[in-house]
Amino acid sequence: MIDQIDLPKDLLGSFKRVSRRIPVDLRKDETLIKTVVDYLQLGGEKLARQAVEAAKQTYALEVAQRRKKAREEALVRAAEARLAAIDEASGKKADGLDDDDDDDDDDDDI
Question: pTM for this structure?
Fold first, then answer.
């Protein structure tokens, strides 16, 4: 994506310097690239760097939130699996009990 941007020659050096700061995962983000180009045209390299830093922080927060959510989901699945195993084990114990109503246990009827 970065190689496909048409830039004026006077911004090419600044864009290359700023684009080195863009994380690999964000290099295909068209919105960020267009923002960097616009900021270079309007405010210069310093403003473009600030945009890249803000995008990096936002991306880092999004990654952290996705990881946290994945960990929470894994914990929930593990807890559900443990509960299912406990229920299954308690169900087997209950099935092993003598629940039939035959009178061979009742010795006090004599």
Answer: 0.61
